[in-house]
Structure formats: structure tokens, C-alpha cells
Amino acid sequence: MVLNSQARQFFLIVGLPLAFCLAAHAGQPSTDRDDSVPGPTSVTLLMRWERGDSHYGPNVIRLRRPCQNSDDMTCSCRVRFATRSSEFADYIASFGKGEVPVIYQVTYGSDGQAVAVRFLSVGTWTRDKLYSPNDGLIGIEFRHESPQQGQRTRHRVKLPADCFPTLPRVIPSPNPNN
Asked: Which end of the chain, N or C, is less packed with Cβ atoms under 10 Å?
């Protein structure tokens, strides 16, 4: 995928709604259940946190960690929160310089890659305590210097798979009814 600066901005804007759609789908039952694929499982990501923003105020929280399954060293998984309560920000700050445990319900495909995720909690702060349905959505960002005019930057993106551990490949067992 080749992204110029306008395309990167578009991607970051579109990536959040896409992540929201994936998260909404994660809890949906499937009528074509493949028993060789494990059901949703809880996965904890340890993420660094940042508090405050000159535009959004002192209580905005951003979480970040390097992508687990990307060869691109500039890839980071990030979580932003629209909830800007001092109580929530103080709770995250209580972790000190340590990382914050963020728990997701993850659905994996038969290739062992995460295909859908649903935010469950940050530490003991559950999703039902947050104000915005977008809180906890995970996205991907790339940090690099701006390319020279005409220079192309390429990134291969697999969301949400880049942010979550890969399971061993699932090999379907033979159907005993055949």
C-alpha cells in the first residue's frame, strides 16, 4: 500500500470507524460456525500511556505500544479515549511510569490472526464506565519523517492482526461423519 500524506490522513480517519465495525462484529454469533477456529478469547496488551493534550485538555488519555505482528518498525498500535474525566485520567496516572493493562475480546481466524476485537477494560476500569462508544478502539499509526515531494512511503497494514499475538495455525480435524 502506498500512502501519501493525504492518504495517510484519510487512512487514520477511516481506520477508527473500521476498527469500530470490527469491534461491533466481534460479539456477533455466526451461523457458519467453523469448530476448528477457537471462540473469542481475552487478550491483555500492556501499553504505555500519555496524558494531556494542548487542544483537548489535561485529562485526555492516549495509549500506545509497538505492533506485535508487523515487520514495519514504525508501526504502533494506539488507543485514544474521548472520555476526559479527571477520575479516569487520575486512574490511568496511578500506574505511574508503568504500562497499563488493556483487555480485549479477540476473535481469531483459522490462520491464527486476529480478525475482530472488542474493548473490555483498562485495568479494572471497564468499558461500561466510559462515556463514548469509541473509547478503547484500537488503531494503527506510523511514525516517520515526512517524505520528500514525490517520494512514496509504503506500509502493509493488517488491522487488528498487527496489534495482537498470533495463535498457532489451526488445522481442521477430519470430519468423523464423512
From this structure: C
